[in-house]
Amino acid sequence: MVKSKADTVWLSRYEFAQKQTNNGSDCICSITNNSQANIATVVLTGAPDTSTIQLDSTATFNGTHYLKPGQQAIAVGNFAGKTITVLNLSLLNVVIVVMLFCPG
Q: 67-87 burial, b for 16+ CB within 10 Å, e for fewer?
């Protein structure tokens, strides 16, 4: 067994993170709204066009998402070697925590 830490960053307003995925392995993308009072606006891209990768098994990964204070959203799937991009477009100074893990 090997213990390691996934790539984790804190993004302020208008900051973004990108991660190149590995073709054939499932990646995990977790986004958490760190604010106790404000909604976070997050834009996600990188899921293959024909993919069924969803955020919290309900919404298509690619697109704009709104996270309530303290809310976490998770997506798991094969991103087929694409680059995942997470952009914080929150109206206020909301910090989001982004964790991107792609084994391989």
A: beeeeebebebbbbebebebb
Pick from 104, 86, 83, 84: nearest CA to 95: 86
Residue ranges for the chain with pLDDT beneath 70:
50-51
| 30 within 8 A of 102, measured Cβ to Cβ | no
pLDDT at 22: 86
Residue pointed to by tokens 């694409």:
82
Task: Produce one character per residue of 39-49: b if its CB has 16 or more CB atoms within 10 Å, e if not.
Answer: ebbbebebbbe
Question: 48-53 long-range CB contacts below 8 Å, 24 or more apart?
Answer: 48/79, 48/80, 48/82, 51/77, 51/78, 51/79, 51/80, 52/77, 53/77, 53/78, 53/79
Rounded-to-integer distance, Cα 12 and Cα 92, Å: 10
Q: Among the residues of 25-80, which ranges form H helices?
A: none
Q: Residue 37, Cα to own-chain centre: how many angstroms?
A: 20
